[in-house]
Specification:
It is globular and about 55 Å long. Helix 1 packs across helix 2. The protein has 186 residues and is of the alpha+beta class. It is built from five helices and eight strands; from the N terminus they run H-E-E-H-E-H-E-E-E-E-E-H-H. It starts with a helix and ends with a helix. The strands form two sheets. It has a five-stranded antiparallel beta sheet.
Length: 186
Amino acid sequence: MTDMTAIMNLITPEAEALGFELVRVQFVSSADEPTLQIMAERPETGQLGIDDCATLSRRISAKFDELEETGRDPIEEAYRLEVSSPGIDRPLTRAKDYANWAGHEARINLIDAVSGKKQLRGLLEGIEGEIIAIDDRKAGRQTTTLDNVHSAKLILTDALIAATIPVSADGADEIEEEPLNEEQED
């Protein structure tokens, strides 16, 4: 069994050294190949570009390779490393996510039911201390504790798209044309 606390303790300083914050780290077992999924962001944008993903991936791989060489492999079985940005419809994993994304639609899956429901969906009102509030579409205002959340994520809406800062639009409107060779001209 993979010790996720030990994995987090290894990954966190590597991400922080690059100026990133971890959003989620999980080990997903599948029939094909187990995957260590790492989701990180730049605190100032809430996103991570492709070059950032590659940099973090190489840094974590180097750290794990170094540990493996000394006989302290943190994951003994073969696995795939996947590093990504949280994306627009991001998971809500930390208390600050519930505060930062208040006012947007969210879906929260619960460990223990609240008012007979194991899923709350509606406008996220935020968090106070450890208490999350959401204006559930069907049940009205509902609250739950952060430790009762199994999983949560934002729902893709026009408002969320408008509120999301693009990583960079530089070069998005530039078109590079290549000269045609004789075969392509026909």
